[in-house]
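Long-time lurker, first post. I've been practising inverse folding by hand and with some scripts of my own, and I keep getting stuck on stretches where the C-alpha cells seem ambiguous. Below is the full C-alpha cell string for one chain I'm working on. Before anyone asks, I'm not after the true native sequence, just a reasonable design that respects the backbone. If someone could post their per-position residues I'd love to compare against what I wrote down in my notebook.
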C-alpha cells in the first residue's frame, strides 16, 4: 500500500462487518475538543480508590521482607493479634491452609501471595495485618516476629546461570532459567555476517526502571456474608482479567465478583498485574466480614510492584562498505526478578522484541533471548506497556549510531539510506512480523526539516571550535512501534485471547451510552470514544456517555495496556456504531416507506435518494425504533449493537525524533535544549489528546536516558525506594516540545488509527542518549547518563555498564 499524502482524502480503509465507511476527520466526531473528563479533575472531583469509604471499613498493611533472599524459620504473630485494634493477621501458613498461598501471574508463572518457605526479594510480602485504622495496622507490623535464615542472593543477571549460583525458585528444582527464545533465521544471518564488508558491535544495558504512577496501587475489598458476593474497587488496568483471576484463586464464582476501577492516577503498565496486597485484602474481608482497604505507600510501590526493562544486550550489525545494513545479530539476557509476572503476551516469552530490526530494510536477523530469575522484585512489566518494543528500538537505534560512528557517516544520512520505503508496505520483517503501512523517509525528512538539521550541524562545529566549556550534541532516533495486542490466535494473557468489546445503546431521544472493556488511566477515553461514536452516527460527542472500569456494566475484554485502546476497543466501538447505523437504515426505511437501498447516509441522517429534504435524523430514527412503528418481519426494534473485535494484526505507528543537548564539561550536567518529534499514528481522532500523550512519553524518555535507575547493592538492598533516590523528570528538565505529524492509515483498522500512547516512550530514550554521546564524543555509554557518569566519560574514565548492581 502506498499511503496518501497528508492533504489527500484517505478514502475507505479496511474491511468491516457492515462496510468500512469513511476515515479521517469529520465535522462532528474527529477533531480537537476539550476532554470531557477534565471538568471533574480540575475541580478535584475525581473519584479514586483511596476516596472510597464504606461502612465499617477496616485497613490493611503489609509486612515486607528486609532480605533479598532468606529462609523463613518462623513467623510469630501472637503479639500482633493481641493488639486491641487488630482484627486479623494473615500469614502464608494461613493462606496455604486455604489453598491460597500461590497465585497465577499473567504470564503463566505462579507467584507467592505471602511467603511461606522463603523470601525471594527485598520487600516481598510476608504477613498482612487488618486493623480498625491504617495507623494501628502499621503499628502492629512491628509486633510480628519473623526469624530469617539469610541466603546468598542472585542480584546480577549475568551470574544467574552460573553453576554455583543460588536457586531463586527452589520449588522448580532446576536452574534460574525462565526461558530461552529465538527469532529469525540464524543460518541466513551468519551467512550475511560472513559476507559483510563491515561489522560493528556494542554491549548495552537497558537498566531497570519503574513506571512510578502518580497514584500507587490500592484496593477496597468487600465480601457480602449473605450473598457471598465480592465487590472490589481497585486500581487496575484490566478489570475483567482481574475478575477471572480472583475467581480462579479464591474459588468465588465469577458472576458473584464485581470489579470497579474508578478514576486511576496513571498506570503505565504498573497496574496490569495482580499484587499480593489485593488478595490479602479479599481474604481479610472474608475473615472479618467487613470491607478492607489497602493502599501502598510510595516506597512499597517502588520496591515491590512491577518494574520495567532490565535487559543486557549484545548487538552486532553487518553492512556493506557504504553503510547498507545487511544483518543484525543479538543476544539478550532478560532479568525477570523472582517471578515472571506481566512481562509479555505469554506466547512470546520475550514480548515483541521480534521487531528489533526496527524501521530498516534488514534482509537477515536473528536474536536469542534468555530470561532469568533473580532476587529482585518480579514483573518485567512493559512500561509504558510496550511489550519489549522499547528495548528493541533502543538496541537498533544505538547500533545504527555506532555503525555511523565507525564508518564516519552522518547518522541522519545512514538512516535515510536504510529506511523502509512506502512501496515496501505491507512489509514482512526478517523475523516474520508484517508492518502495516508507513512513509518512513517522509517522516524523517520532516523531523530534520523542523529541526533545521544542517544548520544545527554547522552550529555544533562552531561550538566545538570555540571550546567554551560547553559541548553541543545532536541525536536522532527512528522507531517502529507494535501496538494493539493482539490477534487471539497468537497472543494471550493468562490464557485469555486479547480481544476487546463494545456495547452501544442509543436511547429513544437520540443520546447514547457506550460500554467498553478497556480502562483509562488518563488517556481521555471518555472523550475520544465519544468522538468515534459521534463521527459514525453524526450526534454530538457530549450526548455520548462512555462507561468503563465496571465489570457489571461493561463487556469482557483484556483492558488497557500496550496502546490497545484505539487499535482494539476503538475498533470495536466503530464497528458497533456502524452496526447501529445499519439498523437505523432499516428503521428509517420503514418510517419513510421506502426500500433500505433507496436511502443514502448523510452526517447524522438518512435521506431518500433523489428526494431532497426527505429523511430522518438519528434521533428521530431512535425514537421510532422504540415506538409502535411496524417493522419488517425479523427486524427488532431499538438501535443497540455490540462488537467483540479480534484484531487481524497489530498496528505499527512510527516516528522520527531529533534531540539537541548541551553538556557542561566541568560538571557533566546535560540540558535538553530542543526536542523535535514527528509521529505517525495513523488517523488522529483528537489531535490535542495525541499531543498530550506524546508530551508525556517524551518526558519519560528524558527521565530514563538521564536519571531513572533502580539499583541494588550486592546484598540485594533496593537503593531507589523513594523519590529522593529514584529521580523523575520535571518541567525543569523538559524543553518546549516541537511536534509534527505524518499520517499513513492502517489498512486493516476500521478508521485507519494505529495508537499513540507508548510511541514517544519507545522512541525518545535513544534520541537523548545519541545526543549526549554525540556531544562528548563517546562511542557508547549506558543509561542513565547522570552528570557523574558524563563527567567520568569526559575525563576518559570508562563508563560502566553494570550500574544496576553497585
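-- Answer (accepted) --
I ran through it position by position. Result:
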Amino acid at each position: 500500500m502506498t499511503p496518501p499524502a497528508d492533504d489527500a482524502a484517505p478514502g475507505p480503509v479496511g474491511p468491516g462487518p457492515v462496510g468500512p465507511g469513511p476515515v479521517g476527520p469529520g465535522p462532528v466526531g474527529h477533531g480537537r475538543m476539550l476532554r470531557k473528563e477534565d471538568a471533574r479533575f480540575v475541580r478535584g472531583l475525581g473519584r479514586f480508590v483511596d476516596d472510597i469509604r464504606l461502612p465499617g471499613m477496616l485497613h490493611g498493611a503489609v509486612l515486607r521482607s528486609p532480605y533479598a533472599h532468606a529462609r523463613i524459620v518462623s513467623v510469630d504473630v501472637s503479639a500482633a493479634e493481641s493488639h486491641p485494634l487488630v482484627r486479623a493477621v494473615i500469614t502464608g501458613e494461613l493462606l496455604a491452609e486455604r489453598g491460597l498461598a500461590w497465585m497465577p501471574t499473567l504470564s503463566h508463572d505462579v507467584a507467592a501471595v505471602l511467603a511461606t518457605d522463603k523470601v525471594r526479594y527485598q520487600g516481598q510480602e510476608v504477613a498482612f495485618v487488618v486493623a480498625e485504622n491504617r495507623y494501628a495496622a502499621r503499628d502492629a507490623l512491628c509486633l510480628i516476629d519473623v526469624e530469617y535464615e539469610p541466603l546468598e542472593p542472585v542480584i546480577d543477571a549475568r551470574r544467574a546461570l552460573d553453576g554455583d549460583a543460588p536457586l531463586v525458585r527452589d520449588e522448580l528444582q532446576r536452574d534460574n532459567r525462565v526461558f530461552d527464545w529465538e527469532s529469525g533465521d540464524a543460518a541466513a544471518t551468519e551467512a550475511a555476517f560472513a559476507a559483510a564488508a563491515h561489522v560493528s558491535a556494542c554491549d548495552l544495558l537497558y537498566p531497570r526502571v519503574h513506571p512510578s504512577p502518580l497514584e500507587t496501587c490500592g484496593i477496597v475489598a468487600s465480601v457480602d456474608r449473605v450473598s457471598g458476593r465480592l465487590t472490589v474497587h481497585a486500581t487496575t488496568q484490566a478489570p475483567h482479567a482481574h475478575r477471572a483471576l480472583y475467581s480462579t484463586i479464591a474459588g468465588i464464582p465469577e458472576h458473584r465478583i464485581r470489579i470497579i476501577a474508578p478514576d486511576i492516577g496513571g498506570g503505565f503498565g504498573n497496574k496490569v498485574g495482580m499484587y499480593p496486597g489485593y488478595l490479602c485484602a479479599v481474604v481479610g474481608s472474608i475473615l472479618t466480614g467487613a470491607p478492607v482497604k489497602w493502599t501502598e505507600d510510595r516506597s512499597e510501590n517502588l520496591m515491590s510492584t512491577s518494574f520495567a526493562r532490565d535487559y543486557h544486550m549484545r548487538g552486532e550489525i553487518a553492512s556493506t562498505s557504504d553503510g547498507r545494513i545487511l544483518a543484525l545479530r543479538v543476544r539478550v539476557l532478560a532479568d525477570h526478578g523472582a517471578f515472571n509476572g506481566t512481562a509479555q503476551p505469554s506466547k512470546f516469552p520475550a514480548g515483541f522484541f521480534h521487531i528489533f530490526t526496527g524501521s530498516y530494510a534488514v534482509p537477515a536477523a536473528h536474536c536469542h533471548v534468555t530470561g532469568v530469575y533473580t532476587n529482585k522484585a518480579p514483573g518485567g512489566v512493559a512500561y509504558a506497556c510496550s511489550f519489549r518494543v522499547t528495548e528493541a528500538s533502543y538496541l537498533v537505534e544505538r547500533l545504527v549510531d555506532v555503525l555511523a560512528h565507525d564508518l564516519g557517516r552522518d547518522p541522519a544520512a545512514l538512516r535515510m539510506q536504510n529506511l523502509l520505503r512506502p512501496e515496501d508496505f505491507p512489509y514482512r520483517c526478517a523475523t516474520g512480523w508484517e508492518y502495516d503501512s508507513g512513509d518512513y523517509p517522509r517522516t524523517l525528512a520532516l523531523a530534520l526539516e523542523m529541526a533545521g538539521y544542517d544548520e544545527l550541524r554547522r552550529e555544533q562545529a562552531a561550538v566545538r571550535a570555540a571550546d567554551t566549556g560547553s559541548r553541543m550534541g545532536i541525536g536522532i532516533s527512528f522507531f517502529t512501534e507494535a501496538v494493539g495486542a493482539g490477534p487471539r490466535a497468537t497472543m494471550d494473557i493468562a490464557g485469555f485471547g486479547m480481544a476487546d468489546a463494545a456495547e452501544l445503546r442509543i436511547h429513544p431521544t437520540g443520546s447514547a451510552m457506550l460500554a467498553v472493556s478497556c480502562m483509562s488511566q488518563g488517556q481521555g477515553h471518555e472523550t475520544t470514544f465519544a468522538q468515534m461514536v459521534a463521527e459514525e452516527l453524526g450526534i454530538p460527542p457530549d450526548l455520548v456517555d462512555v462507561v468503563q472500569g465496571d465489570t457489571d456494566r461493561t463487556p469482557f475484554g483484556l483492558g488497557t495496556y500496550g496502546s490497545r485502546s484505539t487499535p482494539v476497543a476503538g475498533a470495536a466501538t466503530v464497528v458497533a456504531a456502524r452496526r447501529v447505523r445499519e439498523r437505523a437504515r432499516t428503521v428509517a426505511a420503514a418510517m419513510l416507506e421506502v426500500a433500505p437501498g433507496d436511502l443514502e447516509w448523510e452526517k447524522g441522517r438518512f435521506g431518500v435518494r433523489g428526494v431532497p429534504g426527505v429523511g430522518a435524523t438519528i434521533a428521530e430514527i431512535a425514537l421510532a425504533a422504540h415506538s409502535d412503528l411496524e417493522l419488517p418481519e425479523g427486524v427488532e426494534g431499538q438501535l443497540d449493537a455490540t462488537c467483540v473485535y479480534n484484531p487481524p494484526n497489530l498496528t505499527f505507528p512510527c516516528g522520527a525524533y531529533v534531540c539537541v543537548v548541551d553538556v557542561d564539561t566541568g560538571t557533566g550536567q546535560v540540558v535538553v535544549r530542543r526536542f523535535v518529534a514527528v509521529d505517525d499514528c495513523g488517523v488522529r481522532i483528537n489531535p490535542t489528546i495525541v499531543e498530550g500523550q506524546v508530551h508525556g512519553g517524551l518526558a519519560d524518555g528524558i527521565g530514563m536516558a538521564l536519571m531513572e535507575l533502580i539499583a541494588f547493592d550486592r546484598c540485594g538492598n533496593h537503593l531507589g525506594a523513594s523519590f529522593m533516590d529514584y529521580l523523575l523528570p520535571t518541567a525543569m528538565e523538559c524543553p518546549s516540545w516541537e511536534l509534527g505529524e505524518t499520517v499513513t492509515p492502517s489498512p486493516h483498522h476500521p478508521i485507519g488509527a494505529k495508537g499513540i500512547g507508548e510511541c514517544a516512550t519507545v522512541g525518545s530514550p535513544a534520541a537523548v542518549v545519541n545526543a549526549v554521546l554525540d556531544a562528548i564524543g563517546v562511542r557508547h555509554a549506558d543509561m542513565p547518563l547522570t552528570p557523574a557518569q558524563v563527567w567520568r566519560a569526559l575525563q576518559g574514565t570508562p563508563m560502566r555498564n553494570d550500574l544496576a548492581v553497585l
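A couple of notes from the structure itself: The first strand starts at residue 58 and ends at 64. The chain is about 25% helix and 25% strand. Happy to go over any region you disagree with.
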